[in-house]
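I hope you will forgive my troubling you with a question about protein structure. I am sending you one protein, given as its amino acid sequence and as whole-number tokens for its backbone shapes. Thank you for your consideration; the sequence and its tokens are set out here:
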Amino acid sequence: MNLMTVDGYHAKIEFDEETDQFRGEILGLSGGADFYGSSPDELRREFKSHWTSFLRSARSKELSRGNTFQANSIFGFRLNSMRG
């Protein structure tokens, strides 16, 4: 398995012959977090962009429910309830 690491977060990388592109999948997240790139540099940019979007969305959604949010570089994210 090929791995790519950006800012301490990991993604599994494969080459998709059908699209003639590299396909990345962010590890440790439930649900799909796929991204594509024609070169390693493009793939790295897409990884960072997708991860940043995911974090922004997760923080917004979970903080509005009264939770704190902690990113974890191996397992994605963890929520800590602020409720008693």
About this structure: The chain has a mean pLDDT of 76.
